[in-house]
Structure formats: structure tokens, C-alpha cells
Amino acid sequence: MAKEKIIFIAGATGVIGIRLCKMLIEDNWTVFGTTRSEEKTKMLRDIGVTPVIVDVYNSKKLEEVVVNSKATVIVHQLTDLPAGLDPDKMQEALVSNARLRVEGTRNLVNAATKAGVDKMIAQSIGFVYEPGELPQTEESPLLNFEDPTYGETSRAVASLEEQVTHAPFIGIILRNGLLYGDGTGFDNPVDFVPAVNVDAAAYASFLALNGNSTAIYNVANNDERLSSEKIKSALGWTPDYRMK
Questions:
Q1: Which contacts of 130-138 are long-range, i.e. CB under 8 A and separated by 24 or more positions?
Q2: Segment 17-29, tens digit of pLDDT
Q3: Distance between CA atoms of 7 and 50, rounded to whole angstroms?
Q4: Which of 106, 105, 153 shows the shortest CA–CA distance to 129?
Q5: Domain residue spans in the chain?
Q6: Does the domain spanning 6-235 belong to CATH 3.40.50.720?
Q7: In the β-sheet with 119-125, what is the strand arrangement from edge to edge?
């Protein structure tokens, strides 16, 4: 007997999370979505998602809600960055986001392991590679951890990715370009790093449901600096996807 299609989205009200939830509901998934805010639960209910109010740092409560959901797939879309990468808030945000990638991921992986899920799909970033030969691929080294500006970010990204890909279930990492589109703070793609439209990024997460082995994928517009050929070939992803 086929398993019921139940999925748990950590970070469901984020710019990718809310789009992914809509795709999943349309595809007849039962969707549980997290938020830390009572005010945002209506947004989730209105599209058919069962809202779960939980803080990822509350490991006991997180484990409880993940196990009780009976989800077979967990999606990690948790971030803690200001809209438009507001430069006045970025220094503090880099620290909080690094903690989220390390400690938050650890709690989510532990909860997923306890629940016996089949797969986790996790958001990462595709613009913390060490400068080198272009285009960079998934095999290119991440930025050295001693970099004075983004070393901590690179270390946290490496931690997130290692935790997910070494867990006792299929772990799929999506290294997104810098998001642009409605709700991101950027109307158009930036030019200083590889970028991806938020709709296309959500679509990559949706397609990753079809992934049957642990893998890391770059997810970005066609760009001479970064290759996304792997996800195009493996999952049929296109950067041109836009939600209707």
C-alpha cells in the first residue's frame, strides 16, 4: 500500500515556503506548515495548510509536532534574513542565520530521524563558493571558513549540508541563487551574485520530491559563474518557471 502523501514544511510562511505549500496542496498533499506567529496561521489555513506554531530551537516541541504529523517528507526552508538584505540589519542577521543553519538544522534533523521520515529537502545558498574556476559546480569548494566577512556563513552552510546529507534518510540540498521576485525585496535579478526567481526556487523544491537519492543541486538562472545543469538533467528543472 502506498504511503499517504504527508509533508512537513519548516518555514512555511517564507517566500519559498508559501509558494511550495500552494504547489503541494494542488498536488493533493496533506501539508503541515510551521510559523512562530499566531498572526500568520490564517495565511496557511486559507490555502489548505495545517499550521503548526513552533520555534525550531524548542527541540522537544519540534520533535513532538513532527512525529505527530506522520509526515514522510520534511522541507527545511528556515531562514532569518531581512527583506532585500537590508544592509543596516545584515551584520546581526548573518549571525542569527548562521545559528539557524547549525542549531535549527540539528533540531530538525533529529526530529525527522525520530519520526522516521523518508526524505528531507533543505534550502542552502549557491553564492558562498571559494573563488576559482568558472562555472562553479556542486563539487567546487565552499568559501574558506576564515574569510573575514562570510566565513561564518560558509561554515554554517557546510554544517547544514553535512547534517542533512549524512542523516539516515534521503537528503537533498538546493543551493539557491539570490532570490528575486515578489516578496523578496528584489524585483529583478541582481548582478553581483548568481540569482534565481523565487517561483523557480519553489519549483525546484517541489521537483526534489522526485529525487530518490541524496544529492546537492545548484539552483540559479543561466549564469556563466554557476552551473545548474545537474538539477536540469536530474529533475527537469528550469529557471524559467513562473507560478500562474
A1: 134/224, 134/225, 135/223, 135/224, 135/225, 135/226, 135/227, 136/218, 136/225, 136/226, 136/227, 137/218, 137/227, 137/230, 138/175, 138/216, 138/217, 138/218, 138/230
A2: 999 999 999 999 9
A3: 10
A4: 153
A5: 6-235
A6: yes
A7: 50-53, 30-35, 6-10, 73-76, 119-125, 170-176, 215-219
Average pLDDT, the chain: 94
Could you tell me where the DSSP H helices lie in the chain?
Answer: 15-26, 41-46, 59-69, 90-99, 105-115, 151-165, 198-207, 229-235
The Cα 85–Cα 182 span in angstroms is 14
Q: pTM higher than 0.70 for the full model?
A: yes
The Cα–Cα gap between 35 and 20 comes to: 15
- Mind listing the pLDDT tens digit for each residue in 124-170? 999 999 999 999 999 999 999 999 999 999 999 999 999 999 999 99
231's CB contacts (< 8 A; 6+ apart) are: 174, 204, 207, 217, 218, 219, 237
Residue 29 contacts residue 3 (beta carbons within 8 Å): no
The candidate with the shortest Cα–Cα distance to 57, out of 73, 83, 32, 80, is 80
Nearest to 28 by CA among 7, 2, 45, 54: 7
Q: Are 111 and 99 within 8 A, CB to CB? A: no
